[in-house]
Each structure stands twice: as C-alpha cells, then as structure tokens.
Design goal:
With 184 residues, the chain is mainly beta. It is built from one helix and twelve strands. The protein has a single domain, classed as Jelly Rolls. The strands form two sheets. Strands 1, 2, 4, 7, 8, 9, 11 and 12 form an eight-stranded antiparallel sheet that branches. It has a four-stranded antiparallel sheet with strand order 3-10-5-6, with no helix packed on it. The longest helix is centred in the N-terminal third of the chain and has 6 residues. It is elongated, with a radius of gyration of 29 Å. The N and C termini lie far apart (59 Å). 27% of the residues are buried.
C-alpha cells in the first residue's frame, strides 16, 4: 500500500526536536553569527594565496659602479606560517646611459635582496652605444622559501655589469614589486 495519502499529515505536522539532538550539529562557519571569541585559524590548501603586498617607486636611480646599489624599490611582508612561500614579481625599467658624445656602452644587472642578503640576480641588460639606447624591462619572478614568520623586506639593487658608461633604473615610469604569500 502507498503511504502517499499520509504525506499531507507529515508536511503540516508539528514536530518537537529534542535539544540533545542538536549537540552533534557542527557550528556555523558564518563569522557574522559570532558574538564572542575568535575565529579559528584558516586552513587553506597548499598553493592558495594568503596575502598580497605591493611596493612602488617613482624615483630613478643611476650608477656607474660595478657594485650593487639600492634602486629604492622594495616591499615588506610578514608570512603567517614558516611553511609559506613568497612569490616576488617585480618590474623595473633598465636603461643605458647616453651622453652628448654618444660614445661608449654599458650593461646593467639587477639583484634581489631579502632583509639585506642577496638571493638572486637577473639576466636583464640594457645598453647605450653610439647615441642609441636600448631599454629593457628588468625585474624578477622568483619563488622564495624564507622559513620565517618575521617581517621580510625584499628590495632590488642595480649595478653596471659591463661597458664604459653608467646604467639607470626607472627613468621613464614607476617600478612595482608585488609579494604574494603562498600557503605551503
């Protein structure tokens, strides 16, 4: 026999649910329902972006030195876990020096530092020769594993890597650096 005829009674009926039955219901993840206490630590899967920080620099830098000098582009991030990785993406404009006589040439190179220690060098070069100038986008795409929960400052430095003239950074624009904390 079909019990379909009893369906209206089930739908319109009033049922009491004992409070003890609600003890096993998981709590809501809705932060708006929280009136006291704190939310638990988020557990994101590996590869998730936890936070993003950006730094910019509108000042140009020029050097004739073969030693690295700070370009002024930097950004600081504080990882939430020692297992986190930091993805650094920076963009700077590297240009060679052109003086009035148009003689000589120069190539430049960038280096990325973390809290004052060098971690990687770029292969970006620019040159000026015979009154002509070549400008390249320099910078980094680098995944760092700092194993730290302390503040980390990433900064770019520039030097003359070859030739008889100087090199400059950011002569015609704004340099940017983006730091992404990636869950480990």
């Amino acid at each position: 026999m079909s019990r379909a005829r009893d369906l209206p009674d089930v739908i319109s009926g009033s049922y009491d649910v004992p409070l003890a039955a609600l003890d096993n219901v998981p709590p809501s993840n809705d932060a708006s329902a929280l009136t006291t206490g704190t939310l638990g630590t988020a557990r994101l899967p590996a590869g998730s972006v936890i936070q993003v920080v950006q730094g910019t620099n509108a000042n140009s830098t020029f050097t004739t030195s073969s030693s690295f000098i700070a370009t002024g582009l930097q950004a600081t991030i504080t990882p939430s876990s020692t297992s986190s990785k930091i993805l650094i993406i920076s963009r700077e404009q590297l240009n060679g020096d052109i003086d009035n006589d148009g003689l000589g040439d120069a190539t430049g190179q960038y280096r990325l530092y973390r809290n004052g220690s060098a971690i990687v060098e770029s292969n970006s070069t620019a040159w000026a020769r015979g009154g002509l100038q070549r400008i390249n986008d320099g910078g980094f795409k680098y995944l760092d594993s700092p194993n730290s929960t302390s503040a980390l400052t990433y900064a770019t430095y520039l030097r003359v890597a070859g030739g008889s003239r100087g090199v400059g950074s950011n002569a015609d624009g704004i340099s940017t650096m983006v730091l992404l904390e990636i869950a480990g």
